Amino acid sequence: MTDSKQKVHIVSLGCPKNQVDSEVMAAILADGGYAVTDRPEEAAVILVNTCAFILPAKEESIEEILRMAAWKRDGGGPCSHLVVTGCLPQRYEKDLEETLPEVDLFLGIAEIPNIGRHLNRLLGSPRPGRRRTEDPGKRPLPRSVIGKPTFLMNSGHRRLLSTPAGSAYLKIADGCSNRCSYCAIPSIRGEARSRTIDDIVGESESLAARGVRELILTAQDTTLYGQDLKGRPTLGRLLKALAGVGGIAWIRVLYAYPAHLTEDMLETMAQEEKICRYLDIPVQHGDDAVLRAMRRQGDRRLIRDVVEKARRIVPGVALRSSLIVGFPGETARRFENLLSFVREIRFDHLGVFTYSREEGTAASALPSRISAGEKERRRHVLMEEQAGISREINNALLGTRQEVLVEGTGDLAGYAHVGRCRRQAPEIDGVTYLKGGTPQAGELVRCRITAADDYDLFAEIIQQ
After folding, report:
1. What is the span of the domain harbouring residue 447?
2. Which of 46, 67, 187, 451 is an S-S bond match for 458, by CB 3.0 to 4.6 Å?
3. Mutual orientation of helices 372-395 and 332-345 as an angle, nearest 10°?
4. Which residue ranges in the chain fall short of pLDDT 70?
């Protein structure tokens, strides 16, 4: 890295799928001669890759844009340009130009592979290193470049990984074709489109060669993987292929739609040691009337059957789910049905979100809306219930031996390191605090669980 290089700072917001896009853009810029820095005060260009899934995500995106704009406005550093990419400009297109005059360029999802060219033009140079000189004879560059969201990365796209050592997300598909009534994702990211098995395996081999031990499969709906491809390859077939990649120790599956979860996929999980006995199954609700209004495929009985099947075929599987409270028409009785559902199923991990009314979705026109205060109260009730369930499940792990992927040093007295066991996904689940040994980040160690709380585990290293 030399001082002559223009420095770029990238802020990645939202889901792991967005994080992969940010890693692709970071690598494109680095390969194009830019220096990617994690310090905004050093950057000539700040790029914010946004989320616009629900209102809180949009609010966070706008707040972060304005926070980053201060580096340009205040003039305390070298920042000359602010670029916004991802779901927010894809969803609102040119409407943002007036709302956010601080932004120099808005780019849609299709422009991810063209990020280097856009920055070169923005800075007025065929190469990074010189700032743009104004030429009154030239037409001004457009502030928004947004087309159809067609981009889907492949193994030819290098990534600058931003995940902790030893772990990487693997985006197997993008877009969604489920059309749930509350969700704007299909209108933002487009129809579901999958990568081929050979391409995904090729990227996995490259990641393994870089020291990645854990692959975390992600898509809007991983269980619909391959249904748009010739021959209709399945998630189970993909998992078997990934299990053959040398150097990979863990394979984790996120975002498995319950109505699409097959016995073939579960049997593959049970048979292949590398596949973590962990499933993220977003069910969204436990009352049939609300599920119908949400346009979810399947009812409470189907969800119960899927959970039973997963636990029977994959003994010891850790199940995570997500729920929405306060959906229009969620009466007190229907909320009680949801609460009883949580008590019955006993998920290992659970995220609860308050319903966000999103323009352009079918649910936005539904009556019987619920106040923000009542939504938050219901969320609190569910999370309190889940805390007790999680505590009981974690206490049952006392004395067991677990394999843990070390993520780094810890900040808890008496526990020098922190990591995750196979039943914990990054960011969304708890962690495992470690004592003993001198493990390195990215290393797998054997541990004995010695204590637990509502969400986290505490362990002693017994083998490195």
Report:
1. 401-463
2. 451
3. 10
4. 1-4, 75-76, 125-139, 464
